[in-house]
Amino acid sequence: MTEANNSPNKIRERLEAEEYVRLSPLAVKAAGATRPLPEEESPLRTAFQRDRDRIIHSKSFRRLKHKTQVFIGPIGDHYRTRLTHTLEMSQIARTIARALRMNEDLTEVVALAHDLGHTPFGHAGEDALRDIYDPTFKHNYQSLRIVDYLARDGQGLNLSNDVREALVASTPVEEGLSSEGMGYGSIESKIVKLADTIAYINHDTDDAIRAKIITQADLPPVVNRVLGESNSARINTLVTDIIVQNWAVAYPGDDLVARDHCTVELTVSKEIEEAANILKHFLYERVYTGSEAKAEVGKIDHLIQTLFNYFLHHIDELPPEMRANPRDEPKERLVVDYISGMTDRFANATFERLFVPRSWSI
């Protein structure tokens, strides 16, 4: 390699050029990335690599370690949190993206950022804010708000538009593992949504067995038979099937290349999809609703409602960057931003500080 090509100012350009050789024609390329606010390019990293690093070094990302996945404040050290879920699903997404010749860097940053907007106490907290504030409140839109406005003490992260669009381009997969009905978005964003489902239906099963809410023998027979009898076997089955079924996007023909890339759907074989759906519905019936894992939901509703009402009437107690309100938004919006950014333990500590009497002695 010549000295000119090996200089720091040429490394990013070389990486961008390699993408056009290495990746599928359907993949998003870093060289075309734009940002809401133009900025000087890095000499070493592509736009998506910089976005990944900004996410990893953000306070919002670090807070995920103390946000609920399924079990609220679990005592055991081995239960998943929102952070470990994010790391597990990002690896699944990267494996699929690499095999299908999609942009692995873009896939990774979207995976790492997808749950930044999740509330304390998982979906219970999200449901509470829907009831209190807005029925359309969704954590993925809150993730976009964080990277656009709230991170870095109100400065935002100025992420690439491809990343920003991927955070809200499609809704979580409710039925099945195909991307059909997931909306308009890059193939990388659809891979992340599929990986999200693969990760949570498997690690939530693993955690529920660890918590003795269910046993391996309780799983529907078709799940064990089709997907496998262990967490790793099920993930391998699902990931392999997605790669095999969608090999055409890795080496597309002219007819597929001519299509709008954002309309390309990803599919899963019928038998695999049906087994995954059965596992998902089983978890909703046995774990997500009515089990010991959800015993504290009523208390969460009360806590979120109480904090919301308090800060609505004490707006001066919000952090300075939120009180500044540079977009002149309603105070309800500011309070929701503050509460949704809390970790479980910070929300509990704030409630205790404000509403639980303290011991006093002379």
Describe this structure in words.
This protein has 362 residues and is mostly helical. It is built from 19 helices and no strands. The protein is globular, with a radius of gyration of 22 Å.
Tell me what portion of residues adopts beta-strand conformation: under 5%
Poorly predicted residue ranges:
none
Which class best fits the helix and strand makeup? Answer: mainly alpha
By oligomeric state, this entry counts as single chain
Element order: H for helix, E for strand: HHHHHHHHHHHHHHHHHHH
Largest sheet: none
Terminal CA distance = 76 Å
Arithmetic mean of pLDDT: 92
Shape: globular
The amount of helix comes to 55-70%
Count of individual beta strands: 0
Radius of gyration from the alpha-carbon trace, in angstroms: 22 Å
Count of alpha/pi helices: 19
List the keywords.
single chain; 362 residues; mainly alpha; 19 helices; 0% strand; globular
